[in-house]
Amino acid sequence: MNEATLYQHGTLALLVPGLLTGTLTMKELLAHGDTGIGTGEGLDGELIILDGKPYQVNSCGEVNVVPESFTLPFANSHFAAYRPLMTVENATKEELHDQVLGLTHKANTFFSILVTGTFTDVKTRAVAKSERPFKSLAETAKQQSIFTRDKVEGTLLGYYSPQVFDGVAVGGYHDHFLSAAHDFGGHLLDFGTVTGDVQVQVFSTLEQHLPADDQEYCEHDFSKDDIQGAIHEAEG
């Protein structure tokens, strides 16, 4: 177990043209970490893994624990070894992100944040699972559901990627959310404020795993895709 390693299967770039085949099982992902985020085949919901348990928020807003056979085209995982960084009171999303960077000085490396507390005006989303033939990320992401809560206790799990890796991942922060009651969550679009505890885990190594056995991926020409534009439109 290497707590300084972030494992990533696939890249966000491969989702752009619609390479949405599940090429890694949840069992395989969990071998590389007990904490993480991702999405299922066909962009089947939003995943957040905490304490080794993989929760999926589907497009109906339901929170399910997925089986080991669940497959993913893209995911991050790592073994949790967070260190306390700070407490925040009524911090906006932008303030939270800026304060973490200001205290860690880690803008040029990968790290994860874990924020537990009370969130207001939370807005999340989950995409409906699409079937073959898969459409582009932009088209598939249109079939998303938006969920809101005025006030909710929960956990923000996010990953920060350096801008030089934009396309491999989201340059900057990529956050998911799960309520303490396990009845609300998804890809975190925004929130009003958060009051709670902030922990950080810095990675010195990125272990990038690619779906080398997937013929569609191996034969695709990414030079024709607007990778950054599509990612930021879909993930914003």
TrEMBL record:
Keyword Lyase: yes
Entry EC no(s): 4.1.1.5
Catalyzed reactions: (2S)-2-acetolactate + H(+) = (R)-acetoin + CO2
Keywords from the UniProt entry: Acetoin biosynthesis, Decarboxylase, Lyase
Pfam families xref list: AAL_decarboxy
Biological or metabolic pathway of the protein: Polyol metabolism; (R,R)-butane-2,3-diol biosynthesis; (R,R)-butane-2,3-diol from pyruvate: step 2/3
Family: Belongs to the alpha-acetolactate decarboxylase family.
Broad class of enzyme this protein falls into: lyase
InterPro entries named in the record: Acetolactate_a_deCO2ase
Organism of origin: Levilactobacillus fuyuanensis
Official protein name in the record: Alpha-acetolactate decarboxylase
GO MF annotations in UniProt: acetolactate decarboxylase activity
